[in-house]
Design a protein that fits this description.
The protein is α/β, with parallel strands linked by helices. The protein has one domain: Alpha/Beta hydrolase fold, catalytic domain (Rossmann fold, 3-Layer(aba) Sandwich). About 50% of the residues lie in helices and about 10% in strands. It has helices at about 15-20, 50-65, 75-90, 115-130, 135-145, 145-155, 165-175, 180-190, 200-205, 230-235, 255, 260-275, 275-285; strands spanning about 1-5, 30, 70-75, 95-100, 215-220, 240-245. Helix 4 runs antiparallel to helix 8 (about 180-190) and helix 5 packs across helix 8 (about 180-190).
Length: about 280
């Protein structure tokens, strides 16, 4: 089960689905709500647009479509979504791979102990900022100018100047009329999550679960968005979580270094699930 990162879509697994299928796995990729070709709800949505909603979306997909426990592989926001799903519905997850795992809460543990008054002030400021920003003007502008390519380049170690396919698959969803309202909704939703929905809390809950699946962090050595020291810190606090560093890769190692990514991923799955267990996944999934 392949899960994309922020601003991307299922198409971002363009170099991965085929090779993983050739390795014997049935492969799925999902557009998370608000991204790709999925619905793009706004602030009026009945549920906050954050990783809890995406985790429930993924769990429903696993139950209704896949109909068996699966290996979850997520890039960035997809990794956080996979972690959330493993905590909410551990019986649906056989293994968990975050490449990498992002969350501002991993940077600032003190923020987890903020007093109620400070949280209320933050809620007010974030809501006001997101409501006042003219996203209906900014999002279409960015998606049609070199600003998009410049921002996207920050996620890669190699040059993407000639990768038209990549630029198109990122720009296309941002040009939908409902994209600005979805961006506003997810910005508010992610900023105002309760502490229990943040990565540090989710990792603690997963580590205490008797059903915790094996977990691996795959980190690009040159990731500028979520630097490698964050991955090392998570590994140090949770030694049961594996950490593999992919050289010459940035924030999207699955797309930038797919051969290296597949080699490390498949080797880890065979070693941690066992040959017979991995074979069972291939036959059932």
């Amino acid at each position: 089960m392949l899960l994309h990162g922020f601003g991307a879509s299922s198409s971002h697994w363009r170099h991965n689905a085929g090779p993983l299928a050739k390795a014997g796995y049935r492969v799925y990729a999902l557009d998370l709500i608000g991204f790709g070709r999925s619905d793009q709800p706004g602030l009026q949505s009945r549920q906050p647009l954050d990783n809890r909603l995406w985790g429930r979306q993924l769990a429903a997909f696993l139950e209704q479509v896949v109909q068996s426990p699966a290996v979850l592989v997520g890039n960035s926001l997809g990794g956080l979504t996979a972690l959330t799903t493993a905590v909410l519905t551990p019986g649906l997850v056989r293994a968990l791979v975050a490449a990498p795992l992002p969350d501002p809460a991993l940077l600032n543990p003190i923020a987890r102990r903020q007093k109620r008054r400070k949280r209320q002030i933050r809620r007010l400021l974030v809501t006001m900022l997101c409501r006042l920003l003219p996203l209906e003007l900014l999002v279409p502008l960015i998606s049609r100018t070199p600003l998009l390519k410049a921002g996207l380049q920050g996620a890669y170690n190699r040059s993407i100047s000639m990768d038209r396919e990549l630029q198109h698959l990122i720009a296309q969803p941002a040009r939908r009329a409902t994209a600005p309202r979805a961006l506003r909704a997810m910005s508010v939703g992610m900023a105002l999550r309760p502490r229990g929905a943040t990565a540090p809390s989710l990792l603690e809950r997963l580590s205490q679960s008797p059903q915790a699946p094996p977990m691996l962090l795959l980190w690009g050595h040159d990731d500028r968005f979520v630097p490698l020291p964050i991955g090392k810190s998570v590994h140090e606090h949770h030694p049961w979580i594996g950490l593999k560093v992919l050289e010459n890769s940035g924030h999207c190692p699955h797309d930038e270094s797919p051969e290296q990514f597949h080699q490390v991923l498949l080797h880890w799955l065979d070693r941690n699930l066992g040959h017979e267990h991995a074979s069972g996944i291939k036959q059932q999934a």
